[in-house]
Automatic annotation (TrEMBL):
This is Mo25-like. PANTHER family: CALCIUM-BINDING PROTEIN 39-RELATED (PTHR10182), OS07G0585100 PROTEIN (PTHR10182:SF12). InterPro entries: ARM-like, ARM-type_fold, Mo25. Belongs to the Mo25 family. One of its GO terms (molecular function) is protein serine/threonine kinase activator activity. It holds the Pfam family Mo25. It comes from Dillenia turbinata. GO terms for biological process: intracellular signal transduction.
């Protein structure tokens, strides 16, 4: 199916395009059910031969009996719409219906992708996108999304790419203010566990591409759902696994799991704060040891970026800035030579959190005063570098504030503030 031929460019064609979407809904319900039953167990590496075989098989309906009962039970009464192509005339559609022509799951995924994202000639129609989403979640006890997720590895790479984008669209869309996809996935967390567990398994087996598609869908699930994030923060296990994989030598794998960690630990702040109530010590020990103290600059850079974002939450920052060990690590990061000019700026941003701590411990105040001159020189260097970038002009005011705080610090003022 060619993307460029899936819609009309004329005004009349656009009207026909919208009208036809509504008429074809019932047809596609039947097509999806048949396609999922007959094709879900067919590996797409043999996709072409499988389609020929099904076409020539006069007893294709008998395939239903050979499918696992639990899969048949899950066959959805879903609502799918379709873009008519110029080649599809009314008589051709009637002929296809009479011949009981089946559409494979891969073809249906491609059609869904086109509806949700448009093609070279058509922008996506918002009404059609809403209808697709509503159709997917018409019956959460008998839902096509679960079947497509668990059958994901049976698709070829192109279809996997299409479905990954379809999934992202579904979880971001709301119908009458409700995130239907998130509601469904929160009630079926085994599907999210399946995604991330298979991603990890496939990476271990060297099948990176499919693993990263799984990972993309997992990240989208975290982005849109507080409850899914909470589920994966209930224990240390997944967080430790994600840290391990973020530190992999494979740059692509490491980058994807860095994104996973960032999404897990920075988006739903109240959930993260709750997680850190019981896991603060070991978690920041991991961040310090495995990222901030790493000999690998990229690992160190990611650790600093993650830390900076996490400390934006007042519920997280309090305990962190009361640690002398944390202060020493951040001060060492500020001293580090790096061609990445934003590195020191981020380190200064974290350091500032210690300075504005209203309940600064005595030992932290003493270290800052002891290193006052060195800190001021470092801050002026950072400020000079920032001034070379016009787009970072706003950062200058922040650095002025930091230098003013340090410059005004002395033993008497610290002692007075501590007594107060």
């Amino acid at each position: 199916m060619k993307k460029s031929t899936m819609g009309y460019s004329s005004v009349h064609g656009c009207f026909h395009h919208q009208h036809s979407q509504e008429l074809m809904a019932a047809d596609l319900v039947e097509q999806l059910s048949e396609a999922l039953v007959t094709d879900c167990n067919i590996n797409n590496s043999h996709h072409s031969s499988a389609k020929v075989k099904n076409k020539n098989n006069k007893n294709a309906a008998a395939d239903l009996k050979s499918m696992p009962t639990d899969l048949v039970v899950k066959i959805p009464e879903a609502f799918f719409t379709d873009f008519p192509t110029p080649a599809e005339t009314a008589s051709a559609k009637v002929k296809n219906r009479k011949s009981n022509k089946k559409t494979t799951p891969a073809e249906l995924v491609e059609k869904l992708y086109t509806i949700l994202y448009g093609d070279t000639e058509n922008l996506p129609d918002p009404k059609s996108c809403t209808e697709v989403t509503k159709g997917f979640f018409k019956d959460n006890n008998n839902n096509p999304l679960g079947i497509l997720i668990t059958s994901f590895e049976k698709f070829d790479t192109q279809t996997q790419s299409y479905f990954t984008k379809v999934f992202a669209s579904l979880v971001r869309q709301k119908v009458q203010g409700r995130p239907l996809a998130s509601d469904y996935l929160e009630s079926n967390l085994y599907l999210i566990e399946h995604m991330i567990n298979r991603s990890i398994d496939l990476i271990t087996q060297g099948e990176q591409q499919t693993a990263l598609f799984y990972n993309c869908m997992f990240i989208e699930s975290l982005r849109t759902s507080r409850e899914i994030t909470k589920h994966f923060l209930k224990s240390k296990t997944y967080v430790k696994i994600f840290i391990d994989y973020a530190l992999k030598d494979n740059f692509v794998v490491g980058s994807f799991f860095e994104q996973t960690l960032e999404m897990l630990l920075t988006v739903h702040k109240s959930v993260v704060a709750e997680f850190l109530q019981d896991n603060h010590e070991w978690f920041f020990e991991e961040v310090n040891l495995r990222f901030l103290k790493s000999s690998n600059f990229l690992n160190k850079l990611f650790g600093l970026q993650l830390l900076e974002k996490m400390l934006e939450d007042s519920a997280v920052v309090g305990k962190y800035v009361n640690s002398l060990e944390n202060l020493k690590i951040v001060m060492n990061l500020m001293r580090e030579e790096s061609k990445n000019k934003s590195f020191k700026s981020m380190a200064v941003g974290v350091f500032k959190r210690f300075l504005v701590n209203q309940k600064m411990p005595k030992e932290i105040a003493a270290v800052i005063i002891l290193n006052k001159d060195k800190l001021l020189r470092l801050l002026y260097e950072v400020k000079a570098n920032d001034q070379k970038k016009k787009e970072e002009a706003d950062a200058d005011a922040g650095d002025d504030e930091v230098t003013q705080i340090i410059s005004s610090m002395d033993a008497e003022s610290i002692r007075a503030s501590l007594v107060g």
